[in-house]
């Protein structure tokens, strides 16, 4: 007869509850972009509103040579590309002048050299917004490029009279090595979270590598006034402040995607993660808490499964088998959802690495949070003077 003592019953119950909660996260929250794409009418607005693409550049000559052509040759009737050069010491200026001779819809300007106590990126984007000829602003970065010459049509086509923000997705390429698999998995996880939240009418952040909003919205919220004391936050904190369920739309069709270049070193990615962690503490909406609860649930589920297996092996082997089956079924559900989502976003699935990555990524995020605590506040903030 299969009898359970109190400890076995408790651990098996925790494992079962964790299995149900995590499965619901995968199927409902992370699976929402998949379901929405299947049932959404992909018809875009036919009126092609004029748009200004804004790019920040600092020592990005090689990136601009590589990616500007894809931005300057979009199949779109009326647009401009605005590049803000932040005191580059390489030949960024010569590169921009070369392209400007051929493409009259390219405009570039410079950052003032005496800017102090402000994030230079935020000041650059503010200058870019002021210099922009058109009301629709579309942001990407110098190390990114659209995957299609219909990128502008796709992104701007989501605008209606009620729409002020359009969130897009930027994929990470398929590169060899565990580090790049981790970056790709983290990028996919982050993207599915903010896309899903926006689809459920709770937008809370965006990605500055593929992001659009109206110029009038930017100045209505006084630009980056709420986060002037922070180095980062030019994309996520502004969207967190300005987005609502009424004014925000998302798009992640194949024509709307951008792709970022390979991150060469672990240290660069770590600083990107630390910078984002420093701004996330200022988020005003609860969506991020929702996903933090998932991480906590996953940790407790792992502990309960391991404990159940160990206790079961001491005599009641059947509960060990049940715990292992719960873990495997949960893993299969997640692998299917994430694999289909990755293909939808034209990102190479990391299914073969998933078992390892879902352990490493939360540990690395924990390390980032601890690392940030021991860094000086001056690394993330400015002292604003009156």
TrEMBL record:
Keyword set, alphabetical order: Glycosyltransferase, Membrane, Transferase, Transmembrane, Transmembrane helix
| Glycosyltransferase 2-like domain segment(s) | 52-176
Q: Where are the transmembrane segments?
A: 12-30, 290-311, 317-337
InterPro entries reported in the protein's UniProt record: Glyco_trans_2-like (IPR001173), Nucleotide-diphossugar_trans (IPR029044)
Instruction: State any single GO MF term.
Output: glycosyltransferase activity
> Domain of life, per the record?
Bacteria
A Pfam family matched by this chain, by name? Glycos_transf_2
Q: Which family does it belong to?
A: Belongs to the glycosyltransferase 2 family.
Q: By what name is this protein known?
A: Glycosyltransferase
């Amino acid at each position: 007869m299969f009898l359970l003592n109190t400890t076995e019953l408790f651990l098996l119950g925790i494992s079962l509850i964790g299995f149900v909660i995590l499965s619901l996260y995968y199927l409902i929250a992370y699976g929402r972009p998949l379901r929405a794409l299947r049932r959404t009418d992909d018809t875009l607005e036919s009126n092609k509103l004029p748009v200004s693409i804004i790019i920040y550049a600092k020592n990005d000559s090689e990136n601009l040579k590589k990616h500007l052509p894809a931005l300057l040759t979009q199949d779109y009737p009326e647009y401009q590309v605005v590049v803000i050069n932040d005191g580059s010491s390489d030949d960024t200026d010569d590169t921009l002048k070369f392209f400007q001779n051929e493409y009259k819809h390219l405009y570039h300007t410079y950052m003032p050299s005496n800017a102090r106590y402000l994030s230079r990126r935020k000041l650059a984007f503010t200058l870019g917004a002021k210099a922009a000829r058109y009301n629709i602003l579309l942001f990407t970065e110098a190390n990114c490029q659209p995957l299609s010459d219909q990128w502008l049509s796709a992104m701007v086509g989501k605008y209606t009279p009620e729409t002020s923000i359009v969130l897009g997705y930027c994929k990470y390429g398929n590169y060899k090595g565990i580090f790049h698999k981790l970056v790709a998995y983290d990028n996919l996880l982050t993207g599915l979270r903010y896309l899903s939240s926006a689809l459920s009418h709770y937008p809370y952040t965006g990605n500055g590598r593929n992001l659009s909003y109206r110029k009038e919205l930017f100045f209505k919220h006084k630009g980056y006034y709420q986060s002037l004391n922070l180095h980062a936050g030019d994309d996520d904190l502004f969207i967190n402040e300005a987005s609502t369920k009424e004014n925000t739309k998302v798009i992640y069709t194949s024509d709307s995607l951008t792709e970022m270049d390979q991150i060469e070193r672990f240290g660069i990615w770590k600083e990107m993660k630390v910078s984002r962690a420093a701004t996330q503490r200022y988020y005003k909406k609860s969506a991020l808490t929702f996903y933090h609860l998932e991480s906590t649930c996953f940790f407790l589920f792992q502990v309960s499964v391991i404990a159940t297996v160990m206790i079961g092996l001491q005599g009641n082997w059947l509960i060990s088998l049940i715990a292992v089956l719960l873990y495997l079924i949960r893993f299969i559900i997640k692998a299917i959802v994430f694999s289909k989502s990755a293909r939808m976003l034209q990102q190479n699935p990391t299914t073969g690495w998933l078992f390892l990555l879902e352990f490493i990524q939360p540990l690395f995020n924990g390390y980032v949070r601890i690392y940030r605590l021991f860094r000086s506040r001056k690394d993330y903030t400015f002292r604003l003077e009156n």
